[in-house]
Amino acid sequence: MAAGKAPSREGSAKGKRSSVAAPNSEPSGSTKRKSVAPVKKSEPSESDTKESKSSKGGKSAKDNKKIQQDATPELTKEEKAAQKAAEKAKWEKRASMSLDPVAKAKGRRRSSATQGFDQATLDLLSDSWVPPEELMLEGVVELRILTRQRRELCVVKAYRGWKAKDVKDGVWTETAIRPIEQQLFLDDERELPEHDLLDSFFPAAVEGAVILLRRRAPEQAEWLEKCMEYGLQLRLAPPQIQADFEVVMAAVKKNWRAIEFASPELRLNRQVMIAAIDQESRAADLVHPDGWSDREFVLHAVEKDWKLLRKACDDFLADPGIIIAAIKGNWECIDWADPEVWTFIEVPRFAATLGGWEIWNHAPQEFQPQLKSDKIFAMNCVRLDWKNLDNIDEELLKDRDIGEAAVAQDWRALRLLHDDLQGDREIIKRAIQQDFCCLQMAIQEFPIEQSMLLEMVKHNWEIFAHLPAEFNADKEIALMAIGQNWRALEYASEAGKSDPDLVMLAAAQNPEAVFMGSSALYAHKGVLSVALDSNGMLLELASDELKDDNQIVMKAVHQDWRSLQFASARVRAVQDIVFSAFIQDLSAMDWADPELLRNGKAMLAFLLQDERVLPYLDKDLHETDDFVMSVLNEKKLGKRMIMEICKYNWKIFEHVPEELKKDKDVIIAAVEQDIGALEVVGDLYEVYDDKDIMMKAVVHDFNIMNLVNTTMWDDFSLVLLAVKQDYTILEEAPDFSKRSLWQDEDIIREAVKQEPTAIFKTAKVNWGLRDLVVTAVSGNWTVIEKCPKEYVKEYLEDRELALAAAKQSVKAMKKFHEAFWEDKEIMLAAVKTDYRIMEQCGKMIAKDHLRDREIVMEMCRQNGLCLKDADASFFDDMEVVSIAVKQNWSALEKFTKYHQNLYWNDVNLARYAIEGSEALPGEAESLAKCGEVVRENKELVLKCVEQQGQLLQYASEALQNDKAVVTAALSQDVEAIQFASEKIRADTQIMHDVLTQDGKLIRFASEDILDDIDLVRIAVKQDGALIRYASDSLRDNYDLARTAVKSNAAALAHLSESLQADENVLACVKKS
Asked: pTM of the predicted model, to two decimals?
């Protein structure tokens, strides 16, 4: 029931009255009325009515009238039952619709809880209300509420799962006394606890009980409610309220600071002080100083916060109980205690559980010897840290309890114990259990015998994994470990892994253990036999000898039929073994040996078990007379099996007795596979007169119709099968049947599908079958030219026929109605046949079609130049432009200047111009027309300069500086060096190659090259006059000058003045 909703208060007059309040989770201090279940009211007496009016201050006549109008009428038993069933059905439906099990449980709880509620109360419940999960609804106890004068106030029928606040809600409903004003007491003057269930006070045997109600004074109730909501309201309360225990406790529980405003007496009250401290340790500063002389309070405070020990009086600093309570928070507070507390040995003992040996360091000197030799103190220190064995008395190192506590932490503690304990079996076991890894070192340091290890392994096989090699090789220990867990085999010695007994023991638990053993044991029959009991597939690991062992393979196959694949060929031919696998799964026959599949006797047994084995039989077996007779003699197989075998090998038909060769069913089964079966039948059966047999035969060869009885040509279904293979078979039909065959629609359709002109052989009336004509025209449009006159007009105006014809030839367009020239779908089909059809359209029609994207795209696929005639809007359609340029890249030159600038800068379109389109080979010179984006594309530029090196001039600056691109250009035309970057023209190796081919190109070299005597000499040797491009320093070089003038006397004019007057140079000039 939703909290805060107040039910109508009909019948609330005082007197004997009862109610069952709906459970509610709202705090008891709430001022809102709570909803309760309506109950049957007893008739109030006159005195009760007067008393009720006086207690409530009186009600107006208008209010009383309204209450009477709102009163719920009494329901009959039938109405109550129907109401209860409807509510239950509602919640069961809601729960069943939910997939959430929690929601279903809530629905069941609500249905159970509302069984006693009438419709008025149910209407007050919210849809989400459910009773608390722990609410006990099994029994009701009748509570008589009495005043202090023991006068009955009301009766509340309460569930045993209610708490005090629920009872107060019931009283509130009956008497209008708010829960905050109520104090409820049991009959023995004990106040009813807030959080206990009524069931704990009133067992199932108790049907009724008395509850005393003491009503708080209005002022007390008012301040109690305020302080329960906001604790610091207490500071505004009058003195008598600040001295009220209930109000102060409520305020302090809400806000610990409220203790400051309590009366002096209550500030010293133990319950009030504890309530404040429980909330916040800082409340200690507000507690009255005298409160720290209260032992129970101090004990509670230091348990809450050990630091509060400082506030305790001196007497309590020597109190063992208080000191121990503080030590629980922090053992260091023992330093605050009085030295006298050390005389109580339990105090340092307890402190040692937290502080260890540090407690000894903090103890007064006179107490240290006693602590060092105290067993319990030492035990607590060692439990905290085993290394404290170094500090305790030597006599205690002989103590078994201390020894066990130490080694339980770390096996190394064994080294610090007395010699007697170092050899103690229980102590060693405890140490090893703490850390198995210590076992190897422990065996070296301490006297551990084989029998002890055996016993330890018996209790825990994992110890085996940590034993030294010599003990791992002990077979007795290994058997003990592996007997517990097969994984122990992994830690056995190599000799142990080769021991059949050990491996068999492990494999008996898990066949995978075979993999841990030595591979040599794969040939051991006993080991493998044990493993195969659990995993037949382990046969794969067996030796060739065991794979050829019938007994071993049978065991494997019995466990897993798939293991048959690993058996030897000889074993896979053994009938019993293969049969064992076969009865588990038919697929086992995939691994059967061919020899077995040729064994008629064996295969007969397999067929009797499962006829699905038939496809696996050897085909030669089908043609064996003995096998065929064996099959026939088996009642379970017989004729039916012969027919099944025919599906796989019809030649078995040759080996069956004559009786079966006359059997129509067998003949059909054989002929269905091969027409050759007809020859086997011979004269034993008139097969060519039997329609069913011929239907199977014609499927194989339509020419069989030449052999059938002439009456069979009247069977249209038979002829149709032949015509579907070749319609010309109709020419072989008897004359008396031809006319009727050419009138059959199905036969005509099949003939026309193969040869459209076959429609001419049919009767004129069949031209009226439109779908037949469509089929013919779709194959050959010219048939429409020979259409009977009465159908010509109709068909030439038929759109479907026009579309079919247009897909074949543009000439057909001239035959059909002129309106089809405007049909976009038909024109698209015609354009796909030949784009030039558009030239035959009228100008207005063509203009309209050239606005259609699909038509324009199809035209451009055949001739890219068609784009120039299309609507100008397509110049911006990249897909259309790409199709046109892909077909003929010269379409790029047909665009406007704007579009040319745009598309010559597109890499994909430019690629067609450079590499070639479908209709036109590419031209490297197209690079000159391309934009910057294309000129930056290394791949395209490379292809261009490889064809014409001079095109390097159109490459981007970055590519003119690219060594690979420049080298490719120079390979085609060395003069392309003039278009290379300054950096490339300064490259020694490149310029060496260039000048070697043509020294005149030195004029394009960088200044660094012109100052390189070796490179300049290469050019000068070709033409001395080229020295004019050399640097000033080189033109003054004597050797270079002589080389130049020897090559060309004109070089003298470009030398320095001093060299021009040099006799040796001049002599060279005269010689040249």
From this structure: 0.44
